[in-house]
Amino acid sequence: MGTLYLVRHGQASFGADDYDQLSAQGQRQSVRLGEYFAFKGIAFEATLTGTLRRHAQTFAGIQQGMEAAGTPPLPEPSAWPGLNEYDSAAVIATVHPEALQKPTTPELYKHHFRVLRQGLTAWMAGRVQPEGMPTYVEFRDGIAAVLDHVRTRHTGNVLLVSSGGPISTAVGQVLGTAPETTIDLNMRIRNSAVTEFVYTQSRHVLLTYNTLPHLDHPDHAGWITFA
């Protein structure tokens, strides 16, 4: 029996021209998570990431935090395109062809995610197909392939760095949730949050979801972010 640690990337650059870049806060979150893993004595027999820049930067931050605490380097990560996030702009365009304003106010922020939810619902139901993206069935199957790989190839602790969409979809697969529930999980996952699956060769079982043990101290209360 092993444990799969699914980590959402640190805070990226929401609202910027290039979202796929950790902010300074996201970098701090990632390093702090590595320090936490080292403090807990958690070692990993394998690591997996998506191929996005924010995934690689988050992994590097975790490694930096662990090595600063005196732990050996992490295993070289295996890159899986199936762990990449959906293209939120393409999803939004299926239900809102006009470009959204940059979310510079709380109202625009809420509107952005309200429209995104509408697009995700339509994509997951197969009613729309965002340009340049896989179908939802293909997206879901790519994540299932990663979970199958972990179950059949490993027996110990495995670190996986990805995004909110793939992680919430993985949780939905393990729990057998409806698409609407998977979207709810996606909308609530926090930056650098840790989700744990206990796994055997036959299945995964959810142990924890969306936790921030590395930020559970008053000094880090302002480090908790969502986008």
From TrEMBL:
It holds the Pfam family His_Phos_1. InterPro entries: His_Pase_superF_clade-1, His_PPase_superfam. It comes from the Bacteria. SMART domains: PGAM. Coiled coil: none annotated. This is Broad specificity phosphatase PhoE.
